[in-house]
Amino acid sequence: MSNDSSRPPADLERVRDAAWHWVKDTPGYLSENEARFLMLAAACAPVPGTIVEIGSFKGRSTVALASVTKHYGLGRVHAVDPHTAPSSTDPSLHGKATSFDDFMANVTRAGVADVVSPHRMYSRDFAPTFAEPIRLLWIDGDHTEEGARADLEMFRRRLVPGAIVAMHDVLGTWYGSLKVFCDDVLASDDFGVAGFCGSIGWAQYTPGAGGTLKRRWRRGRLRFPARRLLPVAKTGEGLVGLNKLRYKIWRPLAPHGAVNARRWVREVSEYSGGEARAGRGRT
After folding, report:
1. What residues make up the domain containing 148?
2. What is the SS3 assignment for 177?
3. Residue that wins the pLDDT comparison between 86 and 31
4. 90 pLDDT exceeds 90?
5. 252 occurs within a structural domain
6. In the chain, at which end, N or C, are there fewer CB atoms within 10 A of the end residue's CB?
7. Which H or E run contains 152?
8. pTM of the predicted model, to two decimals?
9. 78 to each of 33, 102, 226, how far by Cα in Å?
10. Does a structural domain hold residue 126?
């Protein structure tokens, strides 16, 4: 990795291309833009720590995160999932009792099993025993409001100031994830720069520094159109009728295209200097 934390590694595009070869053949619900964003965050989150993934299913996002982590020698990916389908928002296992065997086969096939620590349990059981600092928290588990909020709060105390929080399915028709991202992340001064990529919502954890007018304004510009999607998601009826119209009006006003790696790294690295170092001493 480059010693210049304000720029992505010179070989990042090649690394992401190689990783996508494995990710695209792994079952799951992560688009290419979303996968490439996770790889960027894994490579360039500007503070030390580990990666925690809540919700692994068959390993699509795990392979993305672990491929980059292994290439740059950035430690391990803690993949937390009971590998059953206990929640109404979990993907179907199509008659199987567990997705764990498929998960292990996929991370092994991609050559990243040696940097993945699978935790075959609920996040609520894992959180009390986990004591490592987190540089990237990826939440893609229980999409109910209660579940998404619990996952954010349980691991928040382990976030290193300057860390990245990313949540899946927050810019679509999953009410719980969308509401938690809007109300607990974008409305909170504990977070600074933020954005969307596909249905991923992400923000940088900046306790004590997210309350500036500039940062509130940026988060507010994202929150305004995103909150207009809440009635669409809450109906549970999908994109039909008035829901479809609302979706077409409001979703484009929340920019969610591919993320420019250079610009993103420059933005998050602004907090990785004195602010982040000072923040590490806080409890």
Report:
1. 12-279
2. helix
3. 31
4. no
5. yes
6. C
7. helix 145-156
8. 0.92
9. 22, 17, 30
10. yes
